[in-house]
Write a structure and sequence with these properties.
Layout (H helix, E strand, L loop, with lengths): L6 E3 L6 H14 L5 E12 L11 E16 L3 E6 L7 E4 L13 H16 L6 E8 L9 H16 L6 H10 L11 H8 L5 E5 L4 E5 L5 E7 L11 H19 L10 H8 L3 H11 L5 E2 H8 L3 H8 L9 E2 L1 H24 L4 H18 L6 H12 L4 E5 L6 E7 L3 H13 L3 H5 L5 E4 L6 E4 L1
Parallel strand pairs: 1-15, 4-6
Antiparallel strand pairs: 2-3, 2-15, 3-6, 4-5, 7-8, 9-13, 9-14, 10-11, 12-13
Helix pairs in contact: 2-3, 2-4, 3-4, 3-5, 4-5, 6-7, 6-11, 8-11, 11-12, 13-14
């Protein structure tokens, strides 16, 4: 695998999207782009809400991506525009510190997260001025990582415009960390697959240290993405960060129960490592130590021997300060169970048994049930869509992404693809005029795509 993001020569002829982007850029700025960069969205096949707990996940890049046309200017500003008129223009000075409003997660603030990450990593005192036009084909707030793809693309653009060179691993790591600027406490899966993806293969993404391993998917099936058409913006709601906080507290409660120094542990994987236990043993420990009823702040403080003020400052995030009850048993049970499912999924892909489709489908179905019942990150629309997908011929179907809306991913045997698409279209999309209007971009077959790259015209 190449270390740095590739620089590719591209031809405008025959590429309508690229030509339209170039035309929009020239009309906007009166000059041609100097280069283009793109970063793909992703679909997570299994391993939901466990990357920020330190566990491996199994995504693949999709063909939909964020594409940006760029020129370097001498105006001392970064000018941002979007081909979609619903996303407004924005200009920021290169002479001042970049300020990101986490209470107002507009599209350009995600872009500026990537800019700020490169500036800080490379120690750039004054950024080069840039003129940019962004075009995205990843449906926003759909669970396919449109926001992280935008952050990654912005990081790549800023690196290139400022003539810096960073490896794909480093880019993935800093782009993962920089989403905290907009208030998202993510784990790094989305940015890692956006940079480290390779065409034709899914990846097992491991953390600490970051590592990507090829996973050959079975030949007898394809993966189909279907959007439930309910949007959920991670940065605009507290659902996502509440789960991060609950896992953080569960880590400390488990550590405390086994006599470990809980003050040093933040992730459920760290508790497992310190105890030298298997995932199965951790699941048993969860049942033994954590009760299923929600914990109050007072109960947690008593167990951890901390004050209410320490609880708020050490364990909560800005948009979870209102929380009074925490479901620790359910969240930890999901994480350890899902981490085990990821490893079993990869093992099946590697060994290719005759019944691999059924085995993988069962793991996907178990994952969705856990997301729905233990992590409570599904929604009625997703549950309905997953049920329809299974009835329509999928051997496995589950929510993908943060949840609370967005997409399902289904594994469908090759011979059933056409009948599957027809049945899902008839049962979920066509009865609802709003869904029917966007059905073509909401229901599609996908295959593993390549990672982020720079294009030179």
């Amino acid at each position: 695998m190449a270390t740095n993001p590739p620089k590719l020569k591209t031809k405008m002829t025959g590429n309508e999207r690229l030509q339209n982007l170039k035309n929009t850029f020239e009309k906007k700025y009166g000059e041609s782009p100097l280069f283009y960069a793109y970063a793909p969205g992703r679909v997570n096949l299994i391993g939901e809400h466990i990357d920020y707990c330190g566990y491996s996940v199994l995504p693949m890049a999709i063909e939909q991506n964020i594409l940006t046309a760029v020129s370097v200017n001498t105006s001392g500003t970064i000018q941002l525009a979007n081909v979609n008129p619903q996303f407004k223009d924005f200009t920021v000075s290169c002479l001042e510190d970049i300020v990101i409003d986490r209470d107002n997660p507009k599209w350009y603030y995600y872009f500026l997260c990537g800019v700020k990450a490169i500036q800080e990593k490379c120690g750039i005192a004054r950024l080069s001025g840039m003129s940019c036009v962004v075009d995205g084909t990843v449906p926003p707030s759909s669970g396919l990582s449109s926001s992280s793809a935008l952050v990654c693309c912005a990081g790549l653009v800023t690196m290139e415009a400022n003539q810096k060179s960073l490896s794909k691993l480093v880019l993935a790591e800093i782009c993962a960390k920089c989403e905290c600027y907009i208030g998202v406490e993510g784990g790094g899966m989305d940015q890692s697959i956006s940079f480290l993806a390779e065409e034709g293969t899914a990846k097992l993404i491991e953390f600490q240290p970051l590592k990507a391993t090829d996973v050959k998917l079975p030949d007898g099936a394809v993966f189909v993405i279907s959007n439930c058409c309910k949007e959920m913006n991670k940065a605009a709601s507290s659902h996502y960060n509440i789960r991060v906080v609950e896992c953080r507290i569960a880590t400390k409660m488990l550590a405390q129960a086994r006599g470990l120094d809980s003050s040093k542990l933040l992730k459920l994987s760290e508790a497992q490592k310190e105890l030298g236990a298997s995932l199965e043993e951790m699941l048993a420990l969860v049942d033994e130590v954590l009760h299923p009823e929600p914990y109050t702040r007072e109960e947690i403080c008593k167990v951890l021997h901390i004050t209410s003020e320490q609880f708020a400052t050490q364990l909560l995030s800005a948009n979870t300060l209102h929380m009074t009850h925490f479901k620790l048993h359910q969240r930890a049970k999901h994480v350890y169970g899902e981490a085990a499912r990821v490893l079993r999924f990869k093992a099946v892909c590697d060994s290719e048994p005759a019944e691999s489709l059924q085995l993988l489908g069962d793991l996907m179905n178990q994952s969705h049930a856990s997301c729905r019942d233990l992590y409570e990150c599904s929604c009625p629309e997703l549950d309905q869509l997953v049920s329809i997908c299974l009835k329509s011929g999928a051997v496995g179907s589950r929510l993908t992404g943060a949840g609370w809306g967005g997409c399902a991913v289904s594994m469908v045997p090759n011979e059933k693809v056409e009948s599957f698409l027809h049945a899902v279209r008839e049962a979920y999309y066509l009865p609802d005029p709003r869904r029917a209007a966007i059905e073509k971009q909401s229901l599609f077959v996908t295959k593993p795509g390549g990672g982020a790259a720079v294009f030179l015209d």
